[in-house]
What we know:
alpha/beta, five-stranded parallel sheet, 10 helices, 36% helix, globular
Amino acid sequence: MKRSIILGSSKAIEEYLQELNSIDGIQIQGYLDPDDSNNYNLMGDLIQLLEIIDKGDLFIVGNQVDSVDVDVLSQMIRYGKHIFVDGFRHWSTHEISTLEKLRNESQTVLQFGNTLYGRPIFTTAQQFIKKPRFIKLEKFSKAPVKGQFETWIFKNLAEDLDIILRLMNCGVRSVNARPMFLFGEQTDLLNIHIEFDNDSICQISMGRAIDEGKHLLKVYQQDKLFDINFAENQLSESRYNNNLDQLKLDYGVNDSVWSENEIPSEAEFITLDRPIMPYHSKRMELRNFIENIDKRLTPLTHLHNLQLVSDLSEWICEKVKRRYQTV
Length: 327
């Protein structure tokens, strides 16, 4: 039996309890809210922390948890514990490298879940997308608080940057970023232009100047366009229908089959709604987490993915702050 401990508030852990109870071989030891002031000494005192670590084999970190820092996770990994982190965390390059080094030495699993990459809409879209040439992201977000630009970028773009990097599947050649101040002194719109080593391009527009609630990713490839609407959970594929051009070649433009008004001048652009695979993403990710532990497999989303996202996020912030130090 694998002893499981959940780090999170009592309200937030209900779904984890339900899913973990449905997995064979899991024994739930309990939960602990690190953000509760009454538990500060438990997580801050090394002796008490080690006692908690000793009670579990794997730890689930909820996405509402803010105060579990890298030092706590490092101790867990040192003692051979497996960790499932709900959502990406804004860790520095040094912190990520430290965790990866310890994880590699202990041969444990540190897996990230509940990101855009694992959602059914993107898993479905990924089956059809091949060699994208241009990606366009439009996303609404509130304006950043002054002095917290880096946090704003990571919080709102980390998961999107992750799937963009995976789709392009190559290195980043250059980054340009420019904030626009439309309604005041805050960044109302951030435009980001990314070029990749394979000559493909990504264009990102994010901020409160975008229609409220909008979260749309457009992926262009040869002869096809995919609209991934995260806000509406809708996926569509658009492409040119070349059947009309084929008919013109078969019959000839001057053939009596076509009247003057019937001769098609250009190919028809058609759009298909793609059905999204129905599955419970959190359930699948937790089961995948257990499978990765048992079979010593690499998770679909791990520290290397976070490292790539963090590097690109820092690059974007550097480009902005070099010219606009007031953000």
